[in-house]
Amino acid sequence: MPTDIKTIRSSGVYCYLVTTSDGGFVLIDSGLSMGRARILKELESAGCRPGKLNLILITHADPDHTGNAAYLRRMYATKIAMHPAETKAAESGNMLYNRKSQASLTRTIFSIFKPGKSDRFTPDFTVEDGQDLSGYGLQAKVVHLPGHTAGSIGILTMQDDPSQGSGQVLFCGDMLMERENGPRLGYGNPLDFKNSLEKLKGLEIKTFYPGHGRPFSIETFLKNFWPTSL
User: Fold this and answer.
1) What CATH number is attached to the domain comprising 15?
2) Which residue among 2, 12, 130, 200 has the highest number of C-beta atoms inside a 10 angstrom radius?
3) What secondary structure, in 3-state letters, does 148-182 show?
4) What pairs with residue 108 in β-bridges?
């Protein structure tokens, strides 16, 4: 079934509410806790009520992506899934946990947005590279994309866009961020990013949905990273 995607922008972070084949929803990332009212309003307007949210998928454990996950799990009686390498960071609220790069920018951001105890959580289950999500009504698979964090993941699925036709889309978290001059890598480990970029080259992706910035096409992606391949 083609995927319907609702973009929710809250406090500078993009979360995505995806309609599932059973009439439910999957939420990809949950935003900062300070943007909770916006998230709740958008879920309500989409018809996503308790019992209708099949799953919350977390691309990585930074607080701007996990801030509402624990609250929404309680509110909507749903489950949270993420890569196992992100579990300790989500449990402790420490975005520096298991991070190879601990730049001053990262430490500063963490000091400002450190999650409170009520916003920390243990995922209900973890997901690995290539894992099928059809059991949650979503014809999609998990793509492990380390770089920004060790356990960063993307979600690869299909979308039917009336203006552009069908094609695979990737929710890429903070691996890629859309900027004025095109998509750029998030901050993190250069070698891991290099390997993840090579993995993306082997996937048939039409559109990228980043955690920060607007969606962008595969043509824009290639122009910024492999201009000679066009």
Assistant:
1) 3.60.15.10
2) 200
3) CCCCCEEEEEEEEECCCEEEEEEEEECCEEEECCE
4) none
Are 169 and 209 a contacting pair, CB within 8 Å? Answer: yes
Q: How many domains does the chain have?
A: 1
pLDDT digits (tens, 9 = 90+) for 148-161: 999 999 999 988 66
Listed residue (78, 64, 84) closest to 152, CA to CA: 84
Task: Using alpha carbons, list the distances in angstroms from residue 120 to 61, 111, 187, 204, 213.
Answer: 10, 15, 23, 35, 26
Contact 86, 128 (CB under 8 A): no
DSSP 54-81: EEEE-SS--HHHHTTHHHHHHHHT--EE
pLDDT of residue 116 exceeding 70, the answer is: yes
Amino acid at 68: N
Start-end of H helices in 77-144: 87-92, 104-113
Give the torsion through C-alpha atoms of 45, 43, 5, 148, to 10 deg.
Answer: 150
Residue 13 is part of which domain span?
5-229
Mean pLDDT of 67-71: 96
| Distance (Å, whole) CA 83 – CA 96 | 16
Cβ atoms of residues 75 and 36 within 8 Å: no
